């Protein structure tokens, strides 16, 4: 049986989440690098696979699926990283949807600076980012892992997004429970070392090169 084709780009947090999961579950795929800078995601061949022109995308012998969360849920079916219990599953889903929102706000901050529609991060977006981190901190004060008492697929998704945030110039000192969980994930994820520092740092390195900090500026009265 052929291995699934996994279309990815190394610097992408959603792709990193899938890679971490693949390694944890020891699943084999054929890795196909899609270079976004060369617009390889906009070729007719790739658009035929994913009209949303996004990585990650998985092609499992003709069953094609996009979005890291959907891919992760598909790959983890039947494993001990997910559950059929409606309560546990609801918590996992809640954390997965939360991750989509967290990634969206980071995307909004990153893309507008990268493509130079802004020279400073939107204060509204930074405020939303801090609010979401505050909520994650509260979740993790009450639970060991993001969705409850055991490691689930949601930890992989939130970890990959948080990893990008962690490497940005941002003060995270008040998020003690998140930082503790982050260190625990690093020790637990067997594929952690396979994600290159440069890829985890991509956004952070760019922001540092421009001297941009993710902070809320106090407005003078
Ligand atoms: N919600 C999606 C987001 C995927 C995403 O935004 N991928 C980016 C790379 S990080 C991409 O492919 N961008 C190219 C484009 O949107 O044209 C997921 O979790 O997979």
Please render the helix and strand layout as text.
Blueprint: E1 5-8, H1 13-24, E2 30-33, H2 44-49, E3 57-60, E4 63-66, H3 68-76, H4 86-114, H5 123-142, H6 153-166, H7 176-188, H8 197-200, H9 202-209
Parallel strand pairs: 1-2
Antiparallel strand pairs: 1-3, 3-4
Helix pairs in contact: 1-3, 1-6, 4-5, 4-6, 5-7
The structure holds glutathione.
GO molecular function: glutathione transferase activity
Domain GST C-terminal: 85-206
Keywords: Transferase
Written account of the structure:
Helix 4 runs antiparallel to helix 5 and helix 5 crosses helix 7. This protein has nine helices and four strands; from the N terminus they run E-H-E-H-E-E-H-H-H-H-H-H-H. It starts with a strand and ends in a 12-residue tail after the last helix. The protein has a four-stranded mixed β-sheet with strand order 2-1-3-4, covered by helices on one side. It has 221 residues and is an alpha+beta fold. A hairpin with a 2-residue loop joins strand 3 and strand 4. The mean pLDDT is 95. The chain folds into two domains: 72 residues, 3-Layer(aba) Sandwich (Glutaredoxin), CATH 3.40.30.10; 124 residues, Up-down Bundle (Glutathione S-transferase Yfyf (Class Pi), Chain A, domain 2), CATH 1.20.1050. It binds glutathione. Glutathione (GSH) binds next to helix 3.
């Amino acid at each position: 049986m052929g291995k699934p084709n996994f279309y990815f780009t190394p610097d992408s947090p959603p792709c990193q989440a899938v890679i971490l999961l693949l390694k944890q579950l020891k699943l084999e795929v054929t890795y196909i690098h899609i270079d976004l800078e060369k617009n390889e995601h906009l070729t007719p061949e790739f658009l035929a696979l994913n009209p949303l022109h996004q990585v990650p995308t998985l092609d499992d012998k003709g069953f094609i699926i996009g979005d890291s969360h959907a891919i992760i849920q598909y790959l983890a079916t039947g494993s001990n990283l997910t559950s059929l219990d409606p309560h546990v599953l609801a918590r996992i889903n809640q954390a997965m949807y939360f991750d989509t929102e967290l990634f969206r706000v980071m995307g909004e901050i990153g893309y507008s600076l990268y493509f130079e529609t802004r020279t400073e991060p939107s204060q509204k977006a930074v405020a939303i980012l801090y609010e979401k981190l505050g909520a994650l901190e509260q979740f993790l004060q009450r639970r060991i892992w993001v969705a409850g008492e055991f490691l689930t697929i949601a930890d992989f998704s939130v970890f990959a997004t948080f990893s990008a945030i962690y490497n940005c110039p941002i003060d995270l000192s008040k998020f003690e429970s998140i930082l503790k969980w982050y260190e625990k994930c690093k020790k637990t994820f067997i594929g952690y070392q396979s994600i290159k520092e440069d890829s985890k740092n991509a956004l952070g390195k760019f922001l540092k090169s421009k001297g941009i900090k993710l902070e809320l500026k106090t407005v003078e009265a």
